[in-house]
Protein: Peroxidase
Amino acid sequence: MDVVVALSVAFLVFPFPSAAGALSPSYYDDNCPQHKSIVRSAVEKATSNDKTVPSALLRMHFHDCFIRGCDGSVLLDTKGKNRAEKDGPPNISLHAFYVIDNAKKALEAECPGVVSCADILAIAARDAIVVSGGPYWEVPNGRKDGRVSLASDTRQLPAPVSNISQLKQSFGQKGLSAKDLVALSGGHTLGFAHCSSFQNRIHNFNTTHDVDPTMNPSFASGLRSVCPAHNKVRNAGAPLDSSNLIFDNAYYKLLLQGKSMFSSDQALLATPKTKALVSKFANSRKAFERAFVNSMTKMSSLTGGEEIRRDCRVVN
Ligand code: HEM
Ligand SMILES: *[C@@H]1O[C@H](CO)[C@@H](O)[C@H](O)[C@H]1NC(C)=O
Ligand SMILES: *[C@@H]1O[C@H](CO)[C@@H](O)[C@H](O)[C@H]1NC(C)=O
Ligand SMILES: *[C@@H]1O[C@H](CO)[C@@H](O)[C@H](O)[C@H]1NC(C)=O
Structure:
């Protein structure tokens, strides 16, 4: 492959090419060396009051990165007629934005105008993993904040009813591989799902089965009792895995037993390659952690913004 072809392929694979070499773990060493401990204490303080904070931060970062790159677009509030990403359809579990606000306030007091909201969120997502008993890694920094956030963009997020080809395509569009897909789906070791997110599997699955036959029957009936066909309880749902406050590999073990929540989780068993990775991660927490860190670093290097916001909820 000659250089021109190689470059254009690289640009096709990475639609946000400003990532190339721009991010660095030592980015704030001179201008805000205390940034890590500031973000870390905001995450720890919030988590001590509300155990759902780590899962919320991890999902927030994923949504941020998948729309316009990791540019803090998910943090912007709706303004006037412009409905923001956070008010788009799959926002049901997005919360804990105040944690980023608190970290930003503390950072602006110490090093004004230096640390981007997109970086704060990337660091907070790492810290969320750490406080949940998962691995630590150095987050490369230097992301810029974007000025655009559109509810209609949330269509780009993969849906819980996606099949394996749709998932691969969605991740592929972000330069992420099938291995990244399997490793990052391990984020579902933390948190909670509302009934609407797995309704398709437990009622009216298809014309021959009311319940997805790939689901463990007693697991499915447990979910059906929490989420009846015409569920009226607004916040009803179930934990994403049996140890949903701990960042471990239980998600993969449960997946192999037919105890995953979403069709998109179950879909990881649909091809030999992705299924082999599921088994590998189910057998080795270390292998999962290594792959997760690698794939998170890839996902969080999709950049796209242009400024350092003063307030994470509004553009400068
Ligand atoms: C593979 C495609 C993915 C799909 C289709 C998907 C879909 C979903 C859905 C539907 C929910 C539940 C929302 C609710 O009912 O409240 C959820 C929760 C969650 N997702 Fe994903 N997700 C995907 C990938 C990821 C990735 C890559 C991460 C992070 C690395 C992630 C982290 C989370 C977390 C932590 C939660 C729990 C949120 C909370 O409890 O507040 N997901 N996901
Ligand atoms: C989610 O979006 C709806 C409208 O689509 C909005 O009313 C609601 O406030 C949003 N929730 C969050 C947590 O942003
Ligand atoms: C995935 O879903 C799409 C859209 O419904 C469909 O065209 C495709 O054939 C499905 N692929 C698989 C592997 O089921
Ligand atoms: C319903 O789903 C099951 C399991 O995926 C499948 O075997 C069956 O063929 C499906 N039925 C129809 C009518 O699509």
User: Anything to note?
Assistant: The two ends are 43 Å apart (CA to CA). Residues 1-21 have pLDDT under 50 and may be disordered. The pocket of 2-acetamido-2-deoxy-beta-D-glucopyranose (ligand 4) is lined by residues 206-209, 213 (CB under 6 Å). The chain is about 45% helix and 0% strand.
